[in-house]
Amino acid sequence: MLLSDILVSAWAGNxxxxxxxxxxxxxxxxxxxxxxAAISGRAQMxxxxxxxxxxxxxxxxxxxxxxxxAGIYGGAIWFADNAVYYQFIRPIGPARSNSQSVLLxxxxxxxRQESLLFKTSLEGACPDPLVIGEDEMDYKCNYFxxxxxxxxxxxxxxxxxxxxxxxxxxxxxxxxxxxxxxxYDFLIRPGADPSLIKIRFDGASSLRTDSSGExxxxxx
Length: 220
Known about the structure:
alpha+beta
């Protein structure tokens, strides 16, 4: 199965499982503090949104086509050997009732969501470059999928940037965060030919630049 197929099906999966994971992460924060006052869900999401961008290594918790993943507000970015997949979700239409929300002790509404996916790749680039994490961060992630402990992954490292080494002859590509935003740089060694760099977009309906030179990608 292709990584793009896995990404699309992942968002259409079990909402209750995602809700449980969210509760495990957020509830210890919401109930901490001397005052005992719970932080609102909106404030928590804003706090998470403002965290520095982290690149999480794949240690078997995802498809083996993904080398790293970066979580962004409203989606995720997946880094494969020869492509980068940008995945976003957005609410569509009214929410539907969730009769399974016993964890919350009431009937809640599940937001209806749509997944958007587009891919970037480098034409003529090395198909299997060395991809390495740089500047390991001071926290790790744990993944507990299902009941089989053999599938669990703990102490998964996060990095401040990742480097595609020699993606073209004499050219490296580095992805890093600028706050919550993703940026990339091409590192061109003396004698290398920058005209080799050609970026292909798949799944985008249009491309344009704004007044500041930023690339705007429309997906629908």
